[in-house]
Design a protein that fits this description.
heterodimer, A: 183 residues, alpha/beta, Double Stranded RNA Binding Domain, Arc Repressor Mutant, subunit A, 2 domains, two-stranded parallel ribbon, 7 helices, 6 strands, globular, B: 169 residues, mainly alpha, Rna Polymerase Sigma Factor, Chain: A, 8 helices, 0% strand
């Protein structure tokens, strides 16, 4: 049955019927769910989130043609592994921004540009997204980041230097910042 | 705000028509579909029919109106693929000397291995049993699928069930 399902995913892809491929990817923090469209990584679900909910969101907002297809995420798996080992500082994976829009989308693109090993404050982000008073909205944009780690919202801190929140839990944020040599 | 006036109904509509990720259909029903197809067309050809079934389903899926019985929807597609297969392989009707009317409305015993046994039946009996019990087709449509008379279909079904009962006993 496994071979049949793999063949099905390949044929679906060849016929343009595989709108979203996903796979589980191991990390030091637990299992990540990573989903890609032909345009790029569209969703990364951290270990403390329900992967089924992530898939339902994708089915509802993008397309219900969602198939598990680990082969389509080999490159994502490779880059993430290297990143967690401290051997990769810049992801080359393309991002598909379809699950975000508006001001949040602007903020998330600003987060995407924060280099490895650096941090910004929520205020910085609001400003670079074009509205320096929208600090709270910038926080929301971090909280609703569809592709954490690749869009490094863990590099966004409170103005006073406090860590602030993180979807994957504050200990994970702390660990990622240590990995990058910030803490 | 204007937004809230529209947001609620849209959310309700969404909930009624929400389709689960296609992978869930595979997780829940792929084994059943494969079992039914093995019964209907034999083990060797089931793989091809399986692929055709799910590719057709995937193609049609985003426009599916009613997601309340996805299993039945998939089995209906599988049934059509099995029928296509029988037509393509050109099975001729088998002449039947006498027509015996027998009621075969008893449910087929379920449980592990039944479909494996179905796979071991002669082709015509195998197809009749699968089309009747897996796809829920009436005798007239089984006859059409197999290219034989309804009486012949009924007889194939009866012989198949008789043989299964003997093997299960």
């Amino acid at each position: 049955m496994r071979a049949s399902l793999q063949r099905l995913a390949e044929r679906a892809d060849a016929e343009g019927l595989l709108d979203v491929a996903y796979a589980e990817v191991d990390s030091p923090f637990g299992t990540l769910l990573v989903a890609t469209t032909p345009r790029g990584i569209v969703k990364l679900s951290l270990p403390n989130y329900d992967p089924d909910e992530a898939l339902e969101e994708i089915a509802a907002k993008l397309s219900p043609r969602v198939l598990e297809s680990p082969a389509k995420l080999d490159e994502a798996r490779r880059e993430l592994e290297l990143y967690f080992e401290g051997r990769l500082t810049e992801f080359e994976l393309p991002i598909d921004w379809q699950l975000t829009d508006g001001f949040r989308g602007k903020v998330q693109r600003a987060i995407y540009r924060i280099p490895y090993g650096q941090t910004r404050t929520y205020t910085d982000l609001a400003r670079s997204a074009g509205n320096d008073r929208a600090v709270r909205a910038a926080g929301t944009a971090c909280g609703t980041n569809p592709v954490p780690i690749l869009v490094p919202c863990h590099r966004v801190l409170r103005s006073g230097g406090a860590l602030g929140n993180y979807g994957g839990g504050v200990p994970m944020k702390e660990a990622l910042l240590k990995l990058e040599g910030v803490l | 705000m204007a937004l809230s006036r529209y947001a609620l109904p849209q959310r309700l509509i969404h909930r009624v028509t929400a389709l689960p990720p296609f992978q869930r259909l595979l997780d829940d029903h792929a084994a059943d579909v494969m079992g039914v197809l093995r019964g209907a067309v034999g083990r060797a050809d089931a793989e091809d029919c399986f692929q055709e079934t799910f590719l057709a389903a995937l193609r049609a899926y985003p426009k599916l109106d009613d997601a309340s019985n996805l299993r039945a929807w998939l089995l209906t597609i599988a049934q059509r693929k099995a029928i296509d297969h029988h037509r393509a392989s050109g099975r001729r009707p088998v002449p039947v000397a006498e027509v015996v009317e027998v009621a075969v409305e008893d449910p087929l015993p379920t449980g592990n291995g039944v479909w494996e046994l179905v796979g071991g039946l002669p082709p015509k009996q195998r197809a009749a049993v699968a089309l009747r019990y897996a796809c829920d087709l009436p005798h007239s449509e089984i006859a059409e699928a197999l290219g034989c008379s309804p009486e012949a279909a009924r007889r194939s079904l009866h012989e198949g069930i008789k043989r299964l009962r003997k093997e299960l006993a």
